[in-house]
């Protein structure tokens, strides 16, 4: 027993690093009142350390802490994605102008981000319903506070109250569904649930429980019909936190959804093919309808938006739909398509948010109409933003094209033709609102001031760091595919 | 008929607790959907979480016979308290900004 605990602690090193950094940030905040962003540098250093600790974990496939969490290639892949996006979020936060009036409390901000990252690491690796819920709530509670962090801003206050009401109701519904699953199967461990459910007949209670659990996780992913919070919260939150919600916590929730559904709600039928258990609840159709609704609603609503954050909120709802297409399939091909999409989505969406933040800092506008003529004043960043938007649309030769190609391919192979048709048509619709931003930047002469705007080297370096993967992965993505092929192994799934 | 009902009520079992749980859950959801006062909405959320607690403990006591359910209920109580603390802090901030906690009047963000 004590040996098992010691082994588990050895596997838990990255999370321990993060917890230690959380404590150090609190102490540093007390001691160094004057130096701002000291907490940010500490968090950055610990995230880089985590990255190396995760690299050392590649190839391990075991469970830790009495089957509470699994350390397997699947979770390590997602944790690497989370760490990369966390590093960028910290860098964004250091430049976010909205946070400047809160300089003397900035230590708390980084502490909360550290807590949220810890929650998301546990979300992607937990194999127990209680652990999943705790990790989920840890992420949620930290993000409620972060959304309302700029508390003197009236928009931020409003978005935080909306977020906490939607969030706690949907997580309450999720845990109710989990309690029903616990009663049906007699266990909280997802492997034992899978084993117990495979022998059972279908009943309405299962459909209800699965729907309730999907409601909770779908809230985090911002899947239609659980998306109502997304536009308001994205618009009101500080820009770096909007990026955190749109990219990092969304990817973590997708990973949790995949693990739960793959382990507990799928089994093997007589012919050795993958089958849904208990028989006849058709959650794949339920998810497919939600994905289609998310793509249609997200893309169509984004057409009318003028605020760039709101537009990106609807676009991220649409992207949630594309990602869930891979979860609907849930074969190895589907899961690897989701992983590829998550990897590409990370860079292109963070890039777009970073540009929006830069423009909000420099030109103090979040309105797409206000972007008129920026192409002449800041050509480099405007071209970069255009490339990110083209990648979000999914046009070659960018990373977004490859990501969409693999998702669509997986869905067609599994026979979801209608879903791919909806996705294809909606991709064309999305072109209109993404290109509108580029049109405003390049096809209008600047009004008022016309001097060129300079960005410092730090900014340019971050832009290049985000831009390079988007362009390079569009043509040379074999290493990522290899990495994903080795990361498909989930603990306890053959 | 009446006698049967009284007899059923006199021997509480799993079904009774699950029904109370479901009832609490429905009352909670109704509160959240119909009330406009943020504090009432938060009370609805507490009811939802308590109905879950009841479910877990009832299952743990009557059908599963492990301690998992009891343990989950303990964790849930702590989480509910943490969530309520954060929510009340946010409500306080909302009151300072808007001078109201009516959810219908807190709607600057639209579209």
What descriptors fit this protein?
heterodimer, A: about 500 residues, mainly alpha, two-stranded antiparallel sheet, two-stranded antiparallel ribbon, 4 strands, about 75% helix, globular, B: about 110 residues, Helix Hairpins, 4 helices, about 80% helix, about 0% strand
Q: Can you walk through the features of this model?
A:
The complex is a heterodimer of chains A (494) and B (111). Chain A has 494 residues and is an all-alpha fold. Chain A contains 20 helices and four strands. In chain A, the strands form two sheets. Chain A has a two-stranded antiparallel sheet. A two-stranded antiparallel ribbon of chain A has the order 3-4. The mean pLDDT of chain A is 91. Chain B is elongated. Chain B has helices spanning 2-10, 14-34, 38-64, 68-98. Chain B is built from four helices and no strands. Chain B has a single domain (14-98), classed as Helix Hairpins, CATH 1.10.287. In chain B, helix 2 runs antiparallel to helix 3 (38-64) and helix 3 (38-64) runs antiparallel to helix 4. With 111 residues, chain B is an all-alpha fold. At the A-B interface, helix 6, helix 7 and helix 10 of A face helix 2, helix 3 and helix 4 of B.
């Amino acid at each position: 027993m004590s040996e098992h605990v010691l082994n588990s602690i050895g596997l838990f090193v990255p999370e321990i690093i993060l917890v230690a950094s959380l404590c150090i940030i609190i102490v540093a905040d007390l001691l160094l009142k004057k130096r701002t962003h000291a907490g940010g540098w500490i968090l950055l250093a610990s995230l880089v350390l985590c990255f190396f600790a995760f690299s050392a974990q590649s190839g391990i496939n075991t469970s830790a802490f009495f089957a509470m969490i699994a350390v397997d290639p699947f979770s390590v892949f997602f944790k690497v994605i989370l760490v990369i996006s966390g590093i960028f979020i910290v860098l964004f936060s250091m430049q976010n102008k909205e946070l400047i009036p809160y300089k003397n409390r900035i230590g708390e901000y980084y502490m909360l981000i550290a807590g949220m990252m810890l929650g998301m690491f546990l979300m992607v690796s937990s194999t127990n319903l209680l652990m999943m819920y705790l990790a989920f709530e840890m992420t949620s509670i930290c993000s409620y506070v972060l959304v309302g962090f700029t508390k003197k801003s009236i928009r931020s206050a409003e978005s935080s109250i909306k977020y906490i009401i939607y969030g706690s109701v949907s997580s309450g519904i999720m845990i109710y569904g989990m309690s029903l699953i616990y009663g049906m199967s007699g266990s909280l461990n997802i492997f034992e649930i899978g084993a117990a459910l495979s022998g059972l007949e279908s009943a309405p209670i299962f459909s209800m429980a699965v729907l309730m659990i999907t409601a909770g996780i779908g809230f985090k992913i911002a899947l239609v019909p659980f998306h109502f919070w997304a536009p308001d919260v994205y618009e009101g939150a500080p820009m770096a936190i909007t990026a955190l919600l749109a990219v990092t916590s969304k990817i973590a929730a997708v990973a949790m959804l995949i693990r739960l559904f793959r382990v507990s709600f799928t089994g093997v039928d007589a012919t050795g093919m993958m089958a849904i258990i208990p028989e006849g609840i058709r959650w794949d159709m339920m998810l497919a309808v939600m994905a289609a609704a998310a793509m249609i609603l997200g893309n169509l609503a984004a057409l009318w938006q003028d605020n760039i954050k709101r537009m990106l909120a609807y676009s991220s709802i649409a992207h949630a739909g594309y990602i869930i297409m891979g979860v609907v399939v849930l074969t190895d091909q589907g899961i690897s398509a989701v992983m590829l999409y998550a990897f590409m989505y990370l860079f292109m969406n963070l890039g777009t948010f970073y540009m929006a933040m830069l423009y909000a800092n420099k030109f103090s506008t979040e309105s797409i109409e206000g972007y008129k003529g920026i192409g002449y004043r800041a050509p480099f960043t405007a071209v970069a933003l255009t490339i990110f938007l083209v990648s979000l649309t999914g046009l070659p030769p960018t990373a977004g094209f490859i990501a969409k190609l693999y998702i669509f391919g997986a869905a067609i192979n599994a026979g979801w033709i209608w879903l791919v048709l909806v996705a294809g048509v909606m991709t064309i619709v999305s072109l209109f609102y993404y290109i509108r931003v580029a049109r405003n930047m390049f096809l209008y002469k600047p009004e008022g001031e016309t001097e060129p705007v300079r960005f410092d080297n730090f900014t340019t370096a971050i832009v290049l760091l985000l831009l390079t993967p988007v362009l390079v992965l569009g043509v040379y993505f074999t290493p990522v595919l290899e990495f994903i092929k080795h990361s498909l192994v989930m603990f306890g799934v053959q | 008929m009446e006698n049967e009902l009284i007899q059923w009520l006199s021997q509480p079992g799993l079904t009774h607790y699950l029904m109370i749980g479901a009832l609490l859950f429905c009352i909670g959801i109704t509160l959240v959907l119909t009330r406009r006062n943020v504090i009432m909405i938060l009370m609805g959320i507490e009811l939802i979480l308590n109905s879950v607690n009841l479910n877990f403990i009832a299952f743990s006591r009557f059908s599963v016979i492990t301690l998992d359910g009891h343990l989950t209920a303990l964790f849930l109580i702590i989480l509910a308290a943490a969530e309520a603390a954060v929510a009340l802090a946010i409500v306080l901030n909302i009151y300072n900004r808007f001078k109201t906690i009516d959810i219908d009047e807190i709607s600057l963000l639209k579209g």
